[in-house]
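so my prof wants the structure for this chain in the tokens format not the other one, which i didnt know existed until like an hour ago. anyway here's the sequence
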Amino acid sequence: MVRNGTYAATFSWSYTDERSEEFYFPERPVGLATYVHFYKKDRFPDGIGSLSFDDLRKEGLSVVAVRNYWYEDMLEAAGVTVEYVSTEQLAWSMLLHERADVYMESTEVGMIRKAVFLGDEASLLVHSPTFLEVPMYPMFSRKHPDGRRLLEIWETSSPPDPETTPEAAIR
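here's what i got, hopefully its the right format
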């Protein structure tokens, strides 16, 4: 809807060259998405480290991945053994039933989605340390009449004072 101009903006998204052709991206991100490898804890009782795509191949780990997600080209370029599925729900089920060693997802999304899809069995899956951090941005419509103006407002506004964030209030 942002692409066709129905809405002026959306967040949060990672930057890609393809997206930048259809949307305005600001210089300043709203935060970072951290990516981890989820795995079945009884299968790897000592855990797994922060593995790169090459490390996954070298360790002989199999990955379940959702077709057409951001990591597809990188997994194939690294020569990782991958089983592609069409939905996240299938990926979580394959991981739970040990038809793959790992599934990569952002930490926050993964914690929510595994609980939604697996219920009580979600506790059987844990995750690695962060292996990738990706800046996340709002995207502004190139077709909405206010898209460019909102981008300019975003770019000229001051970043938040770290001492006035909700996290600072908790400290």
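also thought this was worth mentioning. The two ends are 39 Å apart (CA to CA).
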